[in-house]
Amino acid sequence: xxxxxxxxxxxxxxxxxxxxxxxxxxxxxxxxxxxxxxxxxxxxxxxxxxxxxxxxxxxxxxxxxxxxxxxxxxxxxxxxxxxxxxxxxxxxxxxxxxxxxxxxxxxxxxxxxxxxxxxxxxxxxxxxxxxxxxxxxxxxxxxxxxxxxxxxxxxxxxxxxxxxxxxxxxxxxxxxxxxxxxxxxxxxxxxxxxxxxxxxxxxxxxxxxxxxxxxxxxxxxxxxxxxxxxxxxxxxxxxxxxxxxxxxxxxxxxxxxxxxxxxxxxxxxxxxxxxxxxxxxxxxxxxxxxxxxxxxxxxxxxxxxxxxxxxxxxxxxxxxxxxxxxxxxxxxxxxxxxxxxxxxxxxxxxxxxxxxxxxxxxxxxxxxxxxxxxxxxxxxxxxxxxxxxxxxxxxxxxxxxxxxxxxxxxxxxxxxxxxxxxxxxxxxxxxxxxxxxxxxxxxxxxxxxxxxxxxxxxxxxxxxxxxxxxxxxxxxxxxxxxxxxxxxxxxxxxxxxxxxxxxxxxxxxxxxxxxxxxxxxxxxxxxxxxxxxxxxxxxxxxxxxxxxxxxxxxxxxxxxxxxxxxxx
Length: 568
Prior knowledge:
By secondary structure, the protein is an alpha/beta fold. It is 52% helix and 10% strand.
């Protein structure tokens, strides 16, 4: 029998599974179509296949054999479903207690397991542009989710600091006469101007010349490259600080190109690395083209360095999963990379997964630095913050720490706008929409959290323990609807990280906020339903439920990388 810390839908599934002697994972638990039918419904279809009996007959047998426990009060058969009704007072107590203690989520689910997450990973000598935000926020949300479930998470910024692109920047800087001071703005402009002057192959040829100098250890090229890298990382670090992102592994491409020679020797030794049109390649089963590891001029490619990085991560972290949060345009690259790892005999290649996402488009096109159609991430944050400051000044001019709140709400708006759509969907950049504070937005969720805090301040009491709280006072269906939504939180978080879909958490928090708002606003028409009422026991029970909603909103927002101010 599961412990009382097990969410009720899991307990219901386990009771049915134990009675029918089938795996609980084969059973689906959902809400009945009408509240009067019960609180949790477990279908018996999977059992019927095993038992070769009618689902309705099996449901009747399981319901008849059910013995009430501390949380589940009754079970009835409704066609092919077993409908359970919760002991609501006991469930409220269990739910609030575990939520306030931070134990509702299965905190040990990932104990002893390691997840590597490669996300962000911008190119040096360029700004962090707004179109980079999706991969950065998706990766951070997944890292937060896995950490909350007890996994060891290695957040990796595979900095793009090697290759032809960076040779182009060196060429552009040299052609411009080595201007000072070196800033990201300068390097960005030089790259754009150089790309216009030398389009396509001409640009890349110059870039390869300088990359060769780097890979041959030319001291002048190396010193310039290091300065470019240092200046770039200083700016990136400022943005990551705004987003409260801390990486565990900052080994960029430059860290791995030297390691590539050992790997190439291995591939030569086993006959995998062959020549094709002057390049060195490996042919892979099922692929029309080979994976190129050495270009005709002898320089390495992204694939070469990614191969070395994958081997390093396995040898260093022995991961259970290694996720690459990179836009879907790189799907072929990762498919071939994982195939190559498998061909080399690394069975852990199956643990590597590309997590693709849709693009952030600017004017209908993907942002591209060399084309100049780039909007800076920092600029969007600043605009969002300014918009929130204007609103605060008009509606709450005496708000404490108004600048801090404006920053948190503005950034929250931008993050949520990028996480709420399904991961595979493209997003058309719309500045007004990105910083919007209305509708289904990050600021709406932050406002609901602040409302919970405000209620408790007005009541003069914040419930921190269930001791002495009489949960039998919570009798309204609207209160139970809030609790029912809170019970789903663990399943939501686990499903979001398992499927690498943070938008699942976004929409759950919107649904929770909607249920809370429905309950809260009922008190406007009927004073006896307000949270702050004369009867002390009723007031404390409702305050306890408010505290549980606040704790869940705070944690849910934290998983998304969004702050939860207590006042707005």
